[in-house]
Amino acid sequence: MKIAMFVETFLPQINGMVTRICSTLDCLSNSNNTVLLFAPKSNMQTYKNIKIIGVNYIWLKKVHEDMKLTIPTPRIFKELNQFKPDIIHVLNPSLVGRCLVFYCRSKKIPYVTSYHFNVTQYLDVYKKMLHPIKYAFFWSAIYPIAYFIGIHSINMSDICLVPIMKMTESLKKMGCKNKNIQVWPTGVDKTIFSFNNYNKKMRKRLSGEENSKLVFLYVGRLDVAKGIYNIKPILDAFPEASLAIVGKGESRQMFEEYFKGTKTKFLGVLKGKELSEAYASADVFIIPSKIETFGFVVLEAMASGLLVVGANCAALPFVIDDNENGFLYHPDNPKEAIKKIKFFLNSEKLKNKILSNAQSKTKNMSWEKATEKLVQIYQQTIKNNDKEYLS
Fold first, then answer.
1. Which residue has the higher pLDDT, 148 or 9?
2. Domain range for residue 380?
């Protein structure tokens, strides 16, 4: 099977979307399928054995450091004509996705979209931050365009994939009429993330102390939309605790100032062994985001043996079973999180139950299985497409 995949973000950027894309490509590259990847233009020409076609883009840096809007050019269609794909998959469709709708119809190629995060919800967050007059044109033009293009492309696709079925509600509110929506499962690499990766030196690095009693951990973008500032009241409630923040982002300096005077370490980006050791060497993983749509870091933390405490918003309630494999709390009520963490720390029975259930949840969640499901969806979509044009 020949698969043309279009993405709006890719390496060297590091985010949940890139994690999904790379993990999927890793599995597809080891299969009998051939992939051609279209990604925002960079110095990368290949990934593993997969050819990358660089696509021109508009960088919406003021909105989000990772937000790039790819632009349709003749080269895209030239490459597609040469490649002759059996199926085209567009992740978070934008301007290019809109054009591909017509290309796929004219070539009778199945068109798959996948909806991974609510673009307009992100824009709403940043709209409150940027100057309303200075960026008036941006909000009056980009916002409705992003909204219309995304929904139109999804409505016109043969199938729309979502990471969790709950996101269909969000799509319907936005005007989605596509009835063929399926879940593209999430995975976690258990060969990397495990409680066996505990490292005493890493724990000292996370806390800045030789014998730290309690280490909180956050992994993700340093972005106001992630609600990181909501961790501070929780940290303040535990005098013996320290906080390690792993990741990068344009808001780092602001958060460094905000957490000044607390036992907080900013470690920047960690990868591979270092990241797995950071997870396994902490005690409690906190994810305060109100707009989380993946939950990859939650699964990585669970696989690493941490208590996970997350905001009861977006995708997190569908990854975290409250009081079963972790805790949920209202993001604007840190006292709820504090109460639950204290209960966990003081109850060996509850601790064993939650950590055991967390391990069980991640046990059978692999990227291989998630990609097998994706390939099955591709094959069925191609079959349905053939029947449609033969009938």
1. 9
2. 2-187+367-390
